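Structure (tokenized):
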């Protein structure tokens, strides 16, 4: 769910995109390829720094952008398929993760640069200090250096992480990262590089979290 600059709600569903306007109610939108194929399963919705709405669809799905003047979603790039997560770096670029790589996307020129990670990407996050974090399914938590364009650090269960599948990343007011996994919740202090583990014995309803389900 995202909110656009006009105050409308946008909902990504398994049957397209739904807009909710408090005055007019609900309106349905389809994501259709240039070949006329409907991508119904919306995996991710994102509102970027400019207020633009982006949608990534699943099952041979593409990246779409909403055009306010045309009141419809159009394909941004048909070569960007099955994206699991989207991030706006506030520098005119989108970052996306699929099943084996992260992708840097120039929103104006559509130039794309790919970086192989070898595992599904489930979360992308830039913290308050500008550090770029990647949550993977199977490789734990990774730190990506945008200058060298390489992984500068990696953290796994060997370092205290609950589980090597990091499904989402949020940051608290103290700069700690909170990581949901398939086996509990981890709080990571980037300064000390130490993890605090939380499990059902600490009061969690369940140790297994869902993809993308997190909110600060």
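Design, position by position:
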């Amino acid at each position: 769910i995202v909110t656009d600059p006009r105050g409308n709600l946008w909902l990504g569903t398994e049957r397209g995109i739904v807009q909710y306007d408090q005055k007019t109610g609900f309106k349905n939108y389809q994501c259709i390829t240039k070949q006329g194929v409907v991508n119904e399963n919306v995996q991710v919705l994102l509102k970027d720094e400019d207020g633009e709405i982006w949608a990534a669809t699943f099952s041979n799905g593409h990246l779409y952008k909403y055009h306010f003047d045309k009141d419809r979603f159009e394909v941004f790039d048909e070569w960007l398929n099955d994206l699991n997560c989207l991030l706006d770096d506030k520098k005119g670029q989108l970052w996306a993760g699929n099943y084996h790589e992260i992708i840097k996307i120039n929103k104006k020129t559509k130039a794309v640069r790919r970086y192989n990670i070898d595992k599904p990407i489930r979360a992308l996050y830039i913290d308050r200090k500008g550090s770029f974090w990647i949550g993977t399914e199977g490789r734990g938590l990774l730190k990506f250096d945008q200058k060298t364009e390489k992984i500068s650090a990696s953290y796994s269960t060997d370092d205290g992480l609950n589980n090597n599948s990091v499904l989402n990343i949020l940051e608290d007011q103290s700069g700690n990262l909170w990581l949901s996994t398939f086996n509990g919740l981890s709080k990571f202090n980037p300064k000390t590089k130490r993890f605090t583990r939380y499990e059902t014995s600490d009061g969690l309803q369940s140790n297994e979290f869902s993809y993308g389900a997190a909110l600060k």
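Reviewer-requested clarification: The mean pLDDT is 95. The two ends are 14 Å apart (CA to CA).
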